[in-house]
Amino acid sequence: MISEEFLNKMNDLLGQEEYEAYLKTFEEERLYGLRVNTLKITPEKFTEMTALKLKPVPWIPNGFYYEGDERPAKDPYYYAGLYYLQEPSAMTPASLLNIVPGDKVLDLCAAPGGKSTELGAKLKGKGLLVSNDISSSRAKALLKNLELWGIGNICVTSEEPKKLKEAFGEFFDKILVDAPCSGEGMFRKDGDMVKSYEEHGPEYYAGIQREIMDQAVDMLVAGGFLLYSTCTFSLCENEDIIRRTLELHKDMELISLPLFEGASGGISLSGCLRLFPHKIRGEGHFMALLKKKGSPADHKAWEQETRKQPPLPEELSDFLSMVSMPMEQSRIRIKKDMVYYLPEYFPEYAGGLRYLRTGLLLGEMKKGRFEPGQAFAMALRPEEFKQTISWEKQDERVIRYLKGETISLKGEEGPLKGWCLVCVEGFPLGFAKGSGAALKNKYYPGWRWQ
């Protein structure tokens, strides 16, 4: 299925001996990986809890291989947001961008969320993560994954990079550009990439990548870092993009990425990092880290403006009295009956964008009552809500809850009245409303177990 033109290019790129080793990888089975959500659990604790047969990804502290015949997406721990299914090499870019809690971070080409979820976990609830994808449908999947992981300090947008630059200006401390590419590194994993490659080759994507990088550089603050990555091998989409960026933007410099076992350096440009499937247990990837020269300025104060916020509705205040998660009332906004908790440093001046989400969706005002949302449940810890119930993973009620069914309580569990946070082994799944001996299910219909 793979064109002779591509194979000849790989032979030229690798040399005969390595090229033969690369070809042999197509006879091997593809690899499967998952990455643990360190916002909720440590990798060590997760490996103790799970029945999955896991082996560590050597260069990713919270990354693991799992067996291809296992079904980790059909597991209550997946619904609790404890891990993300991701190809092992694709875990690398987010791991190399040194995120510090409090940073303002942009994931420019973010869907479906594999890299954004890791960036958000590194922020530990502090600062701001703007996750963008130009495709609205893909951005919806991105939003779900971020909310499933319990990341609330987010803005999810669906815009062209140029519009983001116009809205934000020079704003972000860290930017990840996982650029759209020809996908040469994924041919072994995904046969559809071969068909797409025949329609649009490296030269087509290189034009898109150049434009994206120009916009990204303009959104980076002095002293900030930009990590560029692709899942392709071609020089024109990788080293040539970095070389051009350095030539056009004299305030940018290349920071050498450290090599690890199996990783390769850049071709014709030292300091970059390449992953080849014949050298590591993963697919093909390219990465380069750039820094904008100059000293970082202090974080711009969160845009509270000077307007005074109206008092919260009584029914909302009553519900929030059950919550001990630290929250600043000045960051709570109600828009068209939807209640949001805005992130730290949220720039309210950045309007005119297609936002799918601004901050943590707390819930909805409904005819004199407040109904908490699914995202709020996932962002909570059990000890941060007044009334919780937790079941063992093997309890058949866990799956029944995830399917949206009403749940009967056992004698020692009740009575429970009012809002209740439902958990599996101490990890939130969603809300329910107790009526005494039963729980009325409030699990979000769009997320239900199928």
Spans of at least 5 consecutive residues with low confidence: none
- Secondary-structure-based class equals alpha+beta
Report the end-to-end length measured between terminal Cα atoms: 35 Å
Whole-number mean pLDDT: 95
Give the number of helices: 14
Shape: globular
Gyration radius over CA: 23 Å
Q: Please count the beta strands (DSSP E, at least 2 residues each).
A: 23
Largest beta-sheet characterization: 10 strands, mixed
What does this structure look like?
There is one protein chain. The protein is 27% helix and 26% strand. It is an alpha+beta fold. Strands 5, 6, 7, 8, 9, 10, 11, 12, 13 and 16 form a 10-stranded mixed beta sheet that branches. It has a 5-stranded mixed beta sheet with strand order 19-21-22-23-20. The radius of gyration is 23 Å and the shape is globular. It starts with a helix and ends in a 9-residue tail after the last strand.
How are the SSEs ordered, and which strands pair?
Elements: H1 4-14, H2 16-24, E1 32-36, H3 43-49, E2 54-56, E3 63-66, H4 76-79, E4 83-85, H5 92-96, E5 104-107, H6 114-123, E6 128-132, H7 136-148, E7 154-157, H8 161-168, E8 172-178, H9 192-199, H10 202-218, E9 220-230, H11 239-248, E10 252-255, E11 264-265, E12 273-275, E13 285-292, H12 314-320, E14 332-335, E15 338-341, E16 355-358, E17 360-366, E18 369-372, H13 374-379, E19 388-391, H14 396-402, E20 407-408, E21 416-424, E22 427-436, E23 438-441
Parallel strand pairs: 5-6, 5-8, 6-7, 8-9, 19-21
Antiparallel strand pairs: 1-3, 1-4, 2-3, 7-16, 9-13, 10-13, 11-12, 12-13, 14-15, 15-17, 17-18, 20-23, 21-22, 22-23
